[in-house]
Predict the structure of SAM-dependent methyltransferase TRM5/TYW2-type domain-containing protein.
Amino acid sequence: MPRQKRRKSSGNPCFPGGIPGGFDVIGDIAVVNIPAEYEDYCSEVAAYIAGKRKNVRTVLNRTASAGSDFRVPGFEVIYGDPRTVTVHRESGLSYMVDLKDSFFNPRLCTERMRVAAMVNGNEIVLVPFAGVGPFAILPAKRGANVYAVEMNPAACGWLRKNMELNDASGSLEIIRGDAHDIPDIFSTEFDRAIVPAPYGFEESLILSASCVKKGGFIHFYTFKRPSEIDGLRESYERSGFETVSVRRCGNVAKGVARWAFDLRKI
Ligand SMILES: C[S@@+](CC[C@H](N)C(=O)[O-])C[C@H]1O[C@@H](n2cnc3c(N)ncnc32)[C@H](O)[C@@H]1O
């Protein structure tokens, strides 16, 4: 049930510069992470968001960080319909997701388009950590044969649903499994791997790349401080990768950003 307003206030007392940390809109659900010092203002935050984004029917506040293996945070409903299932539209495709059981990050939309634009229709592409499918379905729609690996059974269910919703069934195979087992699962030599690894999964670069052919590409996502990037590039080179490009794509914590490394296996 929507949470009761704890404190009455007039006007908009909190956010002359916007809500700290901002908010995400996934389909018609807004997700916010209200800092402790503002927790008395949940109703005002929700009303502010709903006033700014007219398509929003529900506002969820994160109550626990996405610490689990499946990267799913805890939520409380602070505005509107008490529900967590929605359909998000991105790059002409639809993604259905239940935010209480599966991860989805709308902030990576541009990044997904950037990478998918590099994929040729005849490629075989590996996508570990596929979630509900945004990194996997886009290249499948470009005609590539995509193998998506995801460990969360609920996310696999949504991935299947989204594959059908977007008419990508002919070019996408879903493997429910642990990305650590990739070298044992596949004997395929992939042309490309798109690896949106969760925080701390550095080993998934080498594991995924072991199934990519020489000259093939790996798009690897990692969370680092800017001062670590030159050293990382050198360590990737020592491990047999050429860094084609590296770009920063979003801050995740104070001083820490998400980085996309486009690597070529030498
Ligand atoms: C950072 S999210 C990326 C999800 C998706 N690619 C996206 O952009 O929305 C990580 C995903 O990896 C999955 N995951 C976590 N550990 C895994 C593992 N060892 N093997 C396979 N999938 C895993 C989680 O369930 C989650 O869906």
Notes: DSSP finds seven helices and 13 strands in the chain. The helical segments are 42-52, 109-116, 134-141, 153-165, 182-185, 204-209, 229-238.
